Amino acid sequence: MPQIMKKVYLLLTFISISVFSQKKFDNIKSEKLGEERRITIGLPPSYDEKSDRKYPVLYLFDGDYLFDPFLGAVSYGSYWDDIPEMIIIGIHQNKNDEREDDSTIDQNEGLPFEKGAKFFEFVGAELIPYIEKKYHTAPFRIIAGHDITASFANFYLYKEDPIFNAYICFSPELAPKMEVRIAEKFAKIKQPIFYYLSAGEGDNKKIKEPIEKLNSNIKIANNPLVNYKYEVFKGATHYTEVLHSIPSALYQIFESYRPINSAEYNDKIAVLETGYADYLEKKYATMSEILGYQVPVRMNDFKVIENLILKKNAYDELGKMAEIGNVNYPKAMLGEYELGLMYEKMGDPKHASKKYQNASQMEPIGDLNKDLMYEKIDEMNTLAKKSK
């Protein structure tokens, strides 16, 4: 089966599996709204109540129709480790015009009003605390919506300290003054924010013109702390553009999370004259800082950098690789192996043998195991005798 067909097949499989095996429902009694609100919850395949592992949380307005497409995209992307697993919360808004009522605004002030003001408080003061108390959540929150709910999501940006780290807005029907207020906020913001904005070529002028103004204003604000992307999808309608946008938005937000690919390797790493291990350390430090939890260095990324160091004869950097290995996998033989490799390549088989001996007493990892360590010990001992 061709590789692309395999990926398509897996995508369809993950959508069907995840929809039926991870989805559950809950009702939240809201004092703010004076009623119960229904939510859909999607937990990652690896979620375990007994584990300390934490997950970013994706909150969805229009959860009735946005939940399944997002769940499928997240399942697919996390399978290839391009994006992290995450908890998905879909807010139901399809009963008795709930989405319109929830999005009520004062047309003069351009702010949440009446039921809209109550719904605004429900999300920030009731829903988020409820989810974070009940589940293992990381301090990285995403909010997404479509047309009027996408516009409503932007109101959380107006707060002095926005409660969401990333905003996904599909064809937003912007509230009055919003195309100016958001840009003004971005010009002053002092913490990293991700903002994804999209529209369909088939969106009507009433929607597209304010979006274009917003896009222009954000560009003028030009704040490096705002990770911003705007897309208009050709041939797409107000509704079909959402399916184009979902993966694009997720991959924008989690670009730093992705494993090292050929483009990153060729354009950013291989061109360096030195500092390959530092690049790996910084990549994961940035990733962990953005997500709010420690992301362990992938073994594949580790091996990519190790191989480059060997190719460039930068053997002293293997000491830094040993530090990275010990920090991320303290019980594994990785760190000691890297030191053994460093001494071996620098022509010191005696010290290399000692480090390989230490590694043999630790836990195997990846393609490193006791048999390999014993082979390296014998090889180093033989070299040490010949050098006498």
UniProtKB/TrEMBL annotation:
SUPFAM superfamilies, per database record: alpha/beta-Hydrolases (SSF53474)
Protein source organism: Flavobacterium cutihirudinis
Signal sequence region: none
A Pfam family the protein falls into: Esterase
InterPro entries, sorted: AB_hydrolase_fold, Esterase-like, Mycobacterial_A85_antigen, TPR-like_helical_dom_sf
Superkingdom field: Bacteria
Protein name: Alpha/beta superfamily hydrolase
